[in-house]
Write a structure and sequence with these properties.
Helix content is about 40%, strand content about 15%. The protein is built from 12 helices and 9 strands.
C-alpha cells in the first residue's frame, strides 16, 4: 500500500511539472492592434506603403532606409516581404532571386546572409545604392523604437511559425500584422498566434462568409478587399461587423488616380476603404489627409 501511495505521489508531481509550461504558453497578451484597428477609431494610419516603398529614386523597395525616408514625411503602415536565406536568416525580399533588386544574382535560398551583404540594393530605376538587404529582426527593432506598424507578407518558402517566433522574440506583437491570402493561411496564422491581428482576404461577401465560419474572431481580422473596387455594401457589412477595410490601389487604381486626379483616393475612402494600400504613398496621403 505504501508503495502504491508513493507511485501515485510521484506521478502527480511529474504531471504537475509537465502541465505548467503548457499553461504558461497559453497566457499570451493580445496585441494592442486588435483594439486600435476598429472602424470607429481614427487614430491608426490610413495609408499602407506597398513593399515598404516603390518607384522612389535612390530608395529601393523592402529597404530599412526607405522606411525611414517615408516615415519622416507621412504617417503610414508598411507592407514588407519576408524571405529566408540558406543559413536560415529572415530578410526583406520580394522575389525568389536577388537579381532585380540588388547588384548580385541567384536565389535567396541558395545564399547565406553574409553573401547577401556583399551586394547593394538598387532602386526601381536600376540605380545602385549603398543600402543592404536588411534582416527582419533589424526592421522589427526600428519599428518598435519608432512605433511603426508593419503588415508582413510571408513568402511561400518561409514557415509562418518561423516569422511569428521572430516577432515574439523581438516582443514586436504590438507593431506586427500577419498577411494571409486564403482561408487555410488565415486559420493557420490564428492557431499559431491568436494574439496577433491578421490581414484576411475579404474581396466579396462569399469570402467574408467563409471567414465567419472559421474559429477566427472578428477582432483578429483586418479585411483586405483586393485591388479592384468593391461595392459599398461590402464595406458597410464589414464595418457593421467592426472590421477595418483595406483597399489595394497598387496597380490599376493608382494609375487611374495618377491620370484622373488624386481626389479619387478621397472618393475610395468615402466609399468605405479605411486604409489605402498604394505605390503612391505621398500622393495618397496628401489627398486623404
Amino acid at each position: 500500500m505504501k508503495h502504491l501511495l508513493l507511485i501515485i505521489t510521484i506521478c502527480t508531481i511529474v504531471g504537475c511539472k509537465q502541465t505548467k509550461p503548457q499553461h504558461a504558453t497559453s497566457q499570451v497578451e493580445a496585441s494592442r492592434l486588435l483594439e486600435l484597428f476598429k472602424p470607429s477609431h481614427a487614430d491608426y494610419p490610413n495609408i499602407s506603403v506597398h513593399r515598404g516603398g516603390k518607384g522612389l529614386v535612390n530608395y529601393p523597395e523592402n529597404c530599412l532606409e526607405t522606411l525611414e525616408y517615408i516615415n519622416d514625411s507621412i504617417d503610414a503602415i508598411y507592407e514588407i516581404d519576408v524571405a529566408q536565406t540558406k543559413d536560415g536568416q529572415l530578410v526583406l525580399l520580394h522575389d525568389n532571386s536577388i537579381d532585380r533588386t540588388t547588384t548580385g544574382s541567384g536565389k535567396v535560398s541558395d545564399l547565406t546572409y553574409n553573401e547577401l551583404k556583399t551586394f547593394n540594393l538598387v532602386d526601381d530605376f536600376g540605380n545602385e545604392t549603398a543600402f543592404k538587404i536588411p534582416l527582419f529582426s533589424q526592421v522589427l527593432a526600428w519599428c518598435k523604437k519608432e512605433n511603426v506598424i508593419l503588415t508582413i507578407d510571408i513568402k511561400k518558402s518561409v514557415r509562418q511559425e518561423t516569422v511569428i517566433n521572430t516577432i515574439r522574440e523581438a516582443k514586436a506583437e504590438d507593431i506586427s500584422i500577419i498577411i494571409t491570402y486564403d482561408i487555410e493561411q488565415a486559420k493557420s496564422a490564428y492557431k499559431l498566434a491568436p494574439e496577433l491581428l491578421i490581414s484576411v482576404a475579404a474581396r466579396n461577401n462569399v469570402e467574408f462568409d467563409r471567414l465567419l465560419k472559421t474559429e477566427i474572431p472578428l477582432r483578429n481580422m483586418l479585411a483586405f478587399t483586393g485591388t479592384k473596387l468593391s461595392e459599398a455594401s461590402l464595406f458597410k457589412r464589414l464595418h457593421h461587423n467592426n472590421v477595418v477595410c483595406m483597399l489595394g490601389t497598387l496597380g490599376n487604381l493608382d494609375k487611374r488616380a495618377e491620370a484622373r486626379g488624386d481626389k479619387l483616393y478621397r472618393e475610395w475612402k468615402a466609399n468605405g476603404a479605411d486604409i489605402i494600400a498604394t505605390d503612391r504613398p505621398f500622393e495618397a496621403f496628401k489627398a486623404i489627409n
